[in-house]
Amino acid sequence: MVDFLVATDGLCKGNQNEGGQPGSWAFVVFNPKTGEVIGNKKGFRPSTTNNEMELYAVLEAIRWASKHKKTIHILSDSNYVVKGLNEWIKGWVKRNWKNAKGERIKYREYWQECDKYLNETDSIIEWVKGHSGNKYNEAADM
Questions:
Q1: Which of 71, 81, 102, 108 stands 20 to 30 A from 88 (CA)?
Q2: How many Cα atoms sit within 13 Å of 27 on the Cβ side?
Q3: Is residue 10 annotated as part of the catalytic site, yes or no?
């Protein structure tokens, strides 16, 4: 059983994949039994990408949980992050952190830290559709 439910979100002005735009990230921690908000954290980057902010939100949630020695159920509206952590990462590890084309994985250090934590705990990461009325995702969006 997980200790906390955590919703994460990241964004970049204009949803730019190439970077150079301002962006922000956030996570909200909930009691998994009551749905009550327990806490949150957010941050800003002056030059980033949408994918980096989505991943960084998850990383910061993981850092928070690790510091408090807690397991978490992470909800993210980023297919990139959820598929990366649940599927693609196994291949990246086998290929020494390179993708199928042999290129270095972007944000390698973030992925490695997330992977280490998820392998050491019973924490899970799950995709939720963004902007669809999910109260946890909407809280992270705010």
A1: 71
A2: 25
A3: yes
